[in-house]
Design goal:
This protein is an alpha/beta fold and 243 residues long. It has helices at residues 14-26, 39-49, 65-68, 88-93, 106-120, 128-135, 183-189, 228-241, and strands at 5-10, 30-36, 53-57, 77-82, 98-101, 141-146, 149-154, 158-164, 167-172, 176-179, 197-199, 202-204, 211-212, 216-219, 222-225. It is built from 8 helices and 15 strands. The strands form 4 sheets. A 5-stranded parallel beta sheet has the order 2-1-3-4-5, sandwiched between helices. It is elongated.
Amino acid sequence: MRKKLSCYIIDDEHLAQRILEKYVAKVSFLELKGSFESPLDAVDRMDEDKPDLLFLDINMPDLDGLSFIPMLNPKPMIILTTAYDQYALKAFDLEVKDYLLKPISFERFYKGVLRIYQELNPQHQPEQIEATATQKSEQEYVFIKAGTRIQKVAIRDILFVEGMKDYLRIHTNKEKVMTLMSFAKLQELLPDKKFPRVHKSFMVAIDKIDHIEKNRINIADQIIPISSTYADAFYKVLRDSKD
């Protein structure tokens, strides 16, 4: 059994603090170590406890969350919890793990913490009952950093993803979005098993495949190769998708 992730909550709204405490208590791999109304109240305890994960509000009277992050050393993993979406670009630059917009549903909360936990413990799966709760909520879109903006991309529109050196080009049925991101990072954001790698330079949307012939995939008149490295795993996903 892997160790639990120790957590702190910093939020000046009493109700928001209580909701997050309730959510943390529901998740078996999280352990709440403290809740605070201000970063100034938490900083001494953080130096002592060194929590793994921090749920951090942005707009607070004494010191805002975005200004507090660069002061942290060591810096825990951070999930921002806020009612405002205009800080998303700066949050990406500060390398936060997730950006939760209030009001936060438990399903969205759990999806974020589960992704972090599985990233740290790839061989360990939490209880199935928790995973099932998350799967009931169908994810409709992702936010992708594209240059100087954060681009909303509807998952249903994605056809395939093409690797281009340090960048990815996300092909949708409406546009192409370039982002400085790895395949592994993008796969964390997308629904499991719906977007498998088929080549070192390609990821495809299973439900957008028109046909496959001689290890070549046709999607919207585009031909995408299936390499031997990814073939077995891809065809297994394809078989499982029929069940």
